């Protein structure tokens, strides 16, 4: 799905249509995207949820007729609570649970075991200590709160990565070009990432610098590439929720509230690995097409 039109960075709760939005809807309806994928994309771009759904339904009502397969909801609408199985090509991903506020969803089998192992193999040769963005300068620094080793890949850098990115786009309704490069992380015994937010704080100069290259982060997808014997859960302390790392599963969480504010309940942590090691792939999604900082 191409970039959602008509939204300035930081705009919230849009309830006004435009010719650009209408053209965008016509184009993506013709491509076969369904109600939930279109609504999800509009909401993540700052449109009010009720307005987004009404607008999409109205656009579908006047769209040219398509065959039954094309008119079905697009595979992988992350906001569709009724869709328990998301199909992309010949691959099925199952929804295990979903919270509505904030939006947190756990998916089973986003990747198969062979894909997980292949990603780990790709990453081994380029692992380096994982940095974090300095909130004051925007530089990437090493800190004790994050102890993983990581490997960053460019969007579409490898055929396997391109295939996975297309699957993620279908699942979430967020275009592949809105994603940062896939990051593969490895945590050894005792490795952890203490509680943090993935979104950027615009009032902090260093983090505001990150907003120039795709706008705000709007959601995270964490894919578990192995099943460590103990520890390593993804924890949401303000929700009382821990997600165990199981190979092939993925947890998705979005940060934006309906009024456009950032949801502090998405505070999360990678709990210490207490036996074995943990491998994950992280995909951060932006509100606009992403490009690397110069």
UniProtKB/TrEMBL annotation:
<dbReference type="InterPro" id="IPR006620">
    <property type="entry name" value="Pro_4_hyd_alph"/>
</dbReference>
<dbReference type="Pfam" id="PF13640">
    <property type="entry name" value="2OG-FeII_Oxy_3"/>
</dbReference>
<protein>
    <submittedName>
        <fullName>Proline dioxygenase</fullName>
    </submittedName>
</protein>
<dbReference type="InterPro" id="IPR005123">
    <property type="entry name" value="Oxoglu/Fe-dep_dioxygenase_dom"/>
</dbReference>
<dbReference type="InterPro" id="IPR045054">
    <property type="entry name" value="P4HA-like"/>
</dbReference>
<keyword id="KW-0560">Oxidoreductase</keyword>
<keyword id="KW-0408">Iron</keyword>
<keyword id="KW-0223">Dioxygenase</keyword>
<dbReference type="GO" id="GO:0051213">
    <property type="term" value="F:dioxygenase activity"/>
</dbReference>
<keyword id="KW-0479">Metal-binding</keyword>
<feature type="domain" description="Fe2OG dioxygenase">
    <location>
        <begin position="178"/>
        <end position="287"/>
    </location>
</feature>
<keyword id="KW-0847">Vitamin C</keyword>
<dbReference type="InterPro" id="IPR044862">
    <property type="entry name" value="Pro_4_hyd_alph_FE2OG_OXY"/>
</dbReference>
């Amino acid at each position: 799905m191409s970039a959602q039109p008509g939204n300035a960075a930081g705009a919230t709760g849009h309830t006004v249509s435009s010719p650009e939005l209408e053209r965008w809807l016509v184009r993506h309806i013709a491509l076969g995207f369904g109600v939930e994928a279109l609504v999800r994309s509009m909401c993540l771009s700052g449109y009010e949820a009720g307005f987004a759904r009404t607008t999409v339904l109205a656009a579908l009502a006047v769209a040219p007729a398509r065959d039954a397969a094309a008119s079905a909801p697009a595979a992988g609408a992350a906001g569709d609570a009724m869709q328990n199985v998301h199909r992309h090509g010949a691959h099925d991903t199952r929804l295990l649970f979903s919270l509505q506020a904030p939006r947190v969803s756990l998916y089973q089998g986003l990747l198969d075991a062979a894909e997980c192992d292949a990603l780990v193999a790709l990453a081994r040769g380029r692992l380096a200590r994982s940095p974090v963005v300095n909130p004051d300068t925007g530089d990437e620094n090493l800190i004790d709160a994050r102890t993983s080793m990581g490997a960053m890949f460019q969007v579409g850098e490898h055929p396997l990565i391109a295939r996975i990115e297309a699957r993620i786009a279908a699942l979430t309704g967020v275009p592949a070009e809105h994603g940062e490069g896939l990051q593969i992380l490895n945590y050894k015994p005792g490795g952890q990432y203490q509680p943090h937010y993935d979104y950027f704080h615009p009032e902090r100069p260093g983090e505001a610098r990150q907003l120039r290259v795709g706008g705000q982060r709007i959601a995270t997808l964490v894919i578990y590439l192995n099943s460590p014997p103990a520890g390593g859960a993804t924890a949401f302390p303000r929700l009382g929720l821990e997600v165990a790392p199981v190979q092939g599963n993925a947890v998705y969480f979005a940060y934006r509230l309906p009024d456009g504010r950032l949801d502090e309940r998405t505070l999360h942590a990678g709990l210490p690995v207490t036996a074995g090691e943990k491998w994950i792939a992280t995909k951060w999604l932006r509100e606009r097409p992403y490009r690397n900082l110069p």
